[in-house]
């Protein structure tokens, strides 16, 4: 990054970079999770389709400068991402569903076979590529809630069937 001007003020380019770093920091702080993706090899059509999948899943997908993301993460106290912030990097931020960025990224990796997930963050903690892969396999919130309702309602259903059988026996 450039140095301050001799008069101690920042140039307009430095101010712009500073503003972008602040926006990235806000995005990181407001996200439940994010993943960093090496997207090299995708055609324009594949990238457009990939972006569309992220949008459908309420995930913000952006290509950002590694140096600015590194600065934002470092200012927030994260240095574990430094190694991953080399080469082509796209960032998928999940604000409403922590699993969605990893899930969509993993599906894209399988579908296009040209990119990889570098690493990510879940619950404000660094996650390596293997952890991101594991997180992509976790059911989303709605599926987990449906599973919970099913588990909770099974005993009630069983009781209702048993009471109905007893009542039929007494009436029959």
- Count of alpha/pi helices: 6
Topology as a string of helices (H) and strands (E): HEHEHEHEEHH
- Oligomeric state as shown: single chain
Shape: elongated
Total number of beta strands: 5
- pLDDT under 50 segments (min length 5)? none
**Largest sheet strand order:** 2-3-1-4-5
As a percent range, the share of helical residues equals 40-55%
What tags apply to this protein structure?
172 residues, alpha+beta, five-stranded antiparallel sheet, 55% helix
Structural features, described:
By secondary structure, the protein is α+β, with helices and mostly antiparallel strands. It is built from six helices and five strands. It has helices spanning 12-30, 44-56, 66-75, 100-112, 129-136, 141-171, and strands at residues 33-38, 59-63, 90-94, 116-122, 125-128. The longest helix has 31 residues, at 141-171.
